[in-house]
Amino acid sequence: MTGLMPYLSFPGNAGEALEFYQDVFGGQLSLFTYEQFQRTDGPPDMIAHGELAGPVRLCGSDAGPDDDAVHMLGMSFALLGTAEPQILTEWFDQLAEDGTVIDPLQKRPWGAHDGQVRDRYGVRWLIGYER
Question: What PANTHER family is this protein classified in (predicted)?
Answer without folding.
Answer: PROTEIN YJDN, PROTEIN YJDN-RELATED
